């Protein structure tokens, strides 16, 4: 592949949304130590990609311009760098690319071997490409922050999932139901049947007064909230009366206001906690998720 060109979409400054993307031909990247070169069959875009383009993480991300967005990909291994010989040409994989260099909206991309996972034939490239960031975030929020055990053991927990019809939320509902949980899900009216079909025990339409107050229709108090709505959406005062004595809100879009509430709750030894979460891509966890999809559990 050395010296060959590939098609890609990239932008060369902050802002501009989809219109800021330019179709270009650039050299095919090379797999270095512990990396694999993947021919991209499918990729997915997350709110993360839009936020990076907007400049939310400037000056750290992107590391440089021009930048090819998207970090969730599925495809076929076409090259193996030194140290990545556990993969071979022709292997189907799902991978998370480096956040700083991106690269998914292209014909070829390089991924670390540690963040590349074999994709079984039961899972299409499109299904696989939708899994990494959204699935891993839901997994981390439930297992590490909320303490849900996906084998169904552990004490029963009441869980609220906001934006349950979204990328993270729809995985969170399904993963939560693998545990010993009662799941209340909040979404828009058009998605109520969809979210029920994922296994939610009760569903709130967030545009109704009860829904926007986050009240469980069956009167449950939540042991954990997986809060997937963007930061400006819902304040602590809406969660607080609906939490159990030791209830936690796991917040996926932690801005300055969230960090202040987090610090205040910690410093005042509040039993009810706000937990900001920035998920960290992890190959072992991605493998677990791929297995759940293969087994038809996700
Ligand atoms: N911290 C991390 O590591 C991390 C990782 C991934 C994502 N995130 C963040 O998590 C958020 C969700 O990401 P995503 O990929 O799931 O986004 P998404 O697929 O765009 O989902 C957004 C969902 O929000 C729903 N929604 C909007 N307002 C709502 C409300 N008031 N109550 C309930 N649902 C509401 C919409 O539901 P309807 O269509 O039903 O109206 C839509 O399905 C984003 O802010 C993203 O940046 C953080």
From TrEMBL:
Which Pfam families does its entry note? Answer: ADH_N (PF08240), ADH_zinc_N (PF00107)
Q: List GO molecular-function terms, semicolon-separated.
A: oxidoreductase activity
Ranges where the Enoyl reductase (ER) domain occurs: 16-298
The entry's protein name is Enoyl reductase (ER) domain-containing protein
Q: What is this organism's lineage? A: Eukaryota, Viridiplantae, Streptophyta, Embryophyta, Tracheophyta
């Amino acid at each position: 592949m050395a010296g060959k060109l590939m098609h890609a979409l990239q932008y060369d400054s902050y802002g501009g949304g989809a219109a800021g993307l330019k179709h270009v031909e650039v050299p095919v990247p090379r797999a270095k130590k512990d990396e694999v070169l993947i021919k991209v069959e499918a990729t997915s875009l997350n709110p993360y990609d839009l936020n990076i383009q907007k400049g939310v993480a400037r000056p750290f991300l992107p590391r440089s311009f021009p930048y090819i967005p998207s970090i969730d990909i599925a495809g076929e291994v076409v090259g193996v760098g030194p140290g990545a010989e556990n993969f071979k040409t022709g292997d189907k994989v799902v991978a998370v690319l480096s956040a700083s260099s991106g690269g998914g909206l292209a014909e070829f991309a390089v991924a670390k071997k540690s963040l590349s996972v074999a994709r079984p034939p039961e899972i299409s490239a499109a299904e696989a490409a939708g899994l990494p960031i959204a699935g891993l975030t839901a997994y981390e929020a439930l297992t590490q922050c909320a303490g849900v055990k996906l084998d169904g053991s552990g004490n029963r927990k009441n869980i609220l999932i906001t934006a349950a019809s979204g990328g993270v939320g729809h995985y969170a509902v399904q993963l939560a139901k693998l545990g010993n949980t009662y799941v209340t899900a909040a979404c828009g009216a058009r998605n109520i049947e969809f979210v029920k079909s994922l296994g939610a025990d009760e569903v709130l339409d967030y545009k109704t007064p009860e829904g926007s107050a986050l009240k469980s229709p069956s009167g449950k108090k939540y042991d954990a909230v997986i809060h997937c709505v963007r930061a400006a959406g819902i304040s602590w005062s809406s969660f607080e009366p609906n939490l159990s004595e030791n209830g936690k809100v796991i917040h996926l879009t932690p801005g300055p206001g969230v960090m202040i509430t987090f610090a205040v709750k910690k410093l005042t030894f509040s039993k009810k906690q706000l937990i900001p979460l920035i998920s960290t891509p992890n190959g072992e966890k991605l493998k677990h998720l791929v297995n759940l999809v293969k087994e038809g559990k996700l």
